[in-house]
Amino acid sequence: AQSVTQLGSHVSVSEGALVLLRCNYSSSVPPYLFWYVQYPNQGLQLLLKYTTGATLVKGINGFEAEFKKSETSFHLTKPSAHMSDAAEYFCAVSDRDDKIIFGKGTRLHILP
Amino acid sequence: EAGVAQSPRYKIIEKRQSVAFWCNPISGHATLYWYQQILGQGPKLLIQFQNNGVVDDSQLPKDRFSAERLKGVDSTLKIQPAKLEDSAVYLCASSLESSVGYEQYFGPGTRLTVT
To answer: Which end of chain B is more exposed for a tag (fewer CB within 10 A), N or C?
Structure first.
């Protein structure tokens, strides 16, 4: 069965610093991988997704993630954090069976 | 383009009462999803519709939850009777088709508190 583990329920970074949110997955087949962002009192918004092809995926708002099969990881990064990046981030996996499994989320705090 | 609409945004009820949530997906989206998001967890799929047919309801507690999508457009999710553990945000999402290659667009959710 597929599953997702997000390391750290809360992550704090200073404004302008590197953002790194960690995600490891378990899947029996080559997976689809996703990162979603959720701002307070809003629904989820897709940041980026990996399906096939290039393992480095670029998304919206300057975020990117790299699919590393050997490490079963799909960590999310952004070179320079902005105050507006404060939100909850969800990693998700799909075994291509039309069902997406979400991780528990990581709340990102940006320190001024 | 209008997004996914949900109402109400907030609801407080007592246990054993009933409650209903409404969702209007993006126009033209064939697939509609209802998720339950308990505080501190990621969304969990409750039910998935393709047009007005159910594709997956394996995680829907059918003894108390029901959902319908008459006419293949908007949808309602009902809980009767509610339990304390049903306190959560209920998210509706829609996509053009059911394949995970198609992006799911989420509504703002309905926050349910059961006391």
So the answer is: N
Strand-pair partners of A23: A6
A86: CB partners within 8 A, 6+ apart: A108, A109, A110
3-state secondary structure of A77: strand
**Residues B110, B91: Cα–Cα separation, whole Å:** 7
One pLDDT digit (tens) per residue for chain B, 115 residues:
689 999 999 999 999 999 999 999 999 999 999 999 999 899 999 999 999 899 999 999 999 999 999 888 999 999 999 999 999 999 999 998 877 778 899 999 999 999 9
Q: Does B40 touch chain A (CB under 8 A)?
A: yes
User: A28 vs A1, B7, B17, CA distance in Å?
Assistant: 7, 38, 42
Q: Which of A5, A37, A96, A100 is best to mutate for the B interface (most B CBs within 10 A)?
A: A100
Angle, CA of B13, B19 and B22, to the nearest 5°: 130
